[in-house]
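Supplementary Methods. Inverse-folding protocol.

Structures were first reduced to a discrete structure-token string of length 280. This string, shown here, constituted the complete conditioning input.
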């Protein structure tokens, strides 16, 4: 298995194991990006067929359902736990008949050629075992003139905090390596991936947002939840309380690495996304 494939498998396993905490850990930022995607969409058919690829908990589906009530959305993910959450959201929001969800591998989409008017992969392409294959599948399943949008993180404020937490827990240990994320933070990676797949009129822009929580306690809990998922098996010997205390220590010693909310309380982290789009 390639390094990209191994990293992708670990992340998918992490998402499946912690799907119920995803909103607490990352939801505020991914939903902000989803709103920004919808705000920048080109004109679409009045009742488009849409793919929410690697849908997670449905951030983009929720936004497109509000923006285009006549859209028919296929919300798919390689994580069965995420799909179960998505199905619960469909029932809770009354989206039956408008949104359907099932387990689908983004690298081998189980849809016919030229099915979709719009395909959005919101923070998913860089998790695929073969991102190039995933991009080609998006192109294959788009209709002529259809638009694809894909996002990744240019800057993820969680990662510098992770390294600081590691200094607290075990400063002599090897630094957690995240080569996949580092490569996708580069401007050229997303653009070249879409161009290699065959998309035309590829463009890229950045969007500045934040992960923000209701309190410092909630922030520390959410960040601590993230550490094991990011580090794999590295900190399985650490208790939840050890991870939380290390995070509190970083907050006390390095408040400059966090952001203040509107009330002046430090309870947010900076996030910057890349949003790429291309046309078939």
């Amino acid at each position: 298995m390639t390094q990209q494939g191994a990293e992708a498998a670990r992340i998918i396993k992490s998402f499946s194991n912690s799907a119920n905490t995803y909103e607490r850990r990352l939801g505020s930022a991914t939903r902000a990006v989803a709103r920004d995607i919808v705000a920048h969409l080109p004109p679409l058919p009045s009742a488009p067929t849409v793919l929410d690829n690697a849908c997670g908990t449905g951030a983009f589906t929720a936004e497109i359902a509000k923006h285009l009530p006549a859209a028919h959305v296929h919300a798919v993910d390689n994580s069965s736990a995420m799909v179960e959450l998505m199905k619960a959201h469909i029932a809770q929001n009354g989206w039956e008949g408008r949104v359907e969800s099932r387990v689908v591998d983004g690298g081998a989409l189980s849809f016919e050629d030229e099915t979709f008017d719009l395909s959005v992969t919101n923070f998913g392409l860089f998790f695929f075992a073969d991102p190039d294959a995933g991009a080609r599948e998006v192109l294959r399943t788009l209709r002529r003139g259809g638009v694809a949008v894909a996002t990744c993180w240019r800057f993820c404020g969680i990662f510098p905090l992770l390294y600081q937490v590691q200094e607290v827990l075990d400063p002599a240990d090897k630094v957690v390596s995240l080569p996949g994320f580092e490569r996708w933070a580069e401007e050229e990676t997303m653009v070249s991936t879409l161009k290699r797949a065959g998309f035309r009129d590829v463009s890229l822009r950045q969007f500045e947002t934040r992960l923000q929580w209701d309190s410092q306690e909630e922030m520390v809990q959410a960040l601590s939840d993230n550490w094991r998922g990011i580090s794999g098996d590295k900190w399985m010997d650490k208790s939840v309380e050890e991870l939380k205390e290390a995070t509190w220590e970083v907050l006390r010693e390095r408040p400059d690495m966090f952001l203040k909310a509107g009330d002046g309380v430090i309870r947010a982290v900076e996030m910057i996304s890349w949003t790429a789009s291309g046309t078939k």
